[in-house]
Write a structure and sequence with these properties.
By secondary structure, the protein is mainly α. It has one domain (2-53). 78% of the residues lie in helices and 0% in strands. It contains two helices and no strands. It has helices at 7-32, 38-53.
């Protein structure tokens, strides 16, 4: 294993890192709600795309 770490410690660290990433992203989505207005942006981009084709 890397740096002489045992498989058990390496897998424990990997699981802890994965859980930290997942919980962090969940907190961001619950607190900031980045996807709540995505439909508005999609419609705006569709209008821009239609306007540039003509």
């Amino acid at each position: 294993m890397p740096a002489g770490v045992s498989w058990g410690r390496y897998s424990l660290f990997s699981i802890a890192a994965l859980l930290a990433m997942l919980s962090g992203s969940q907190v961001v989505h619950l607190y900031y709600k980045p996807l709540s207005d995505i439909d508005k942006y999609i419609e705006e981009e569709k209008r821009k795309l239609k306007g540039s084709k003509t």
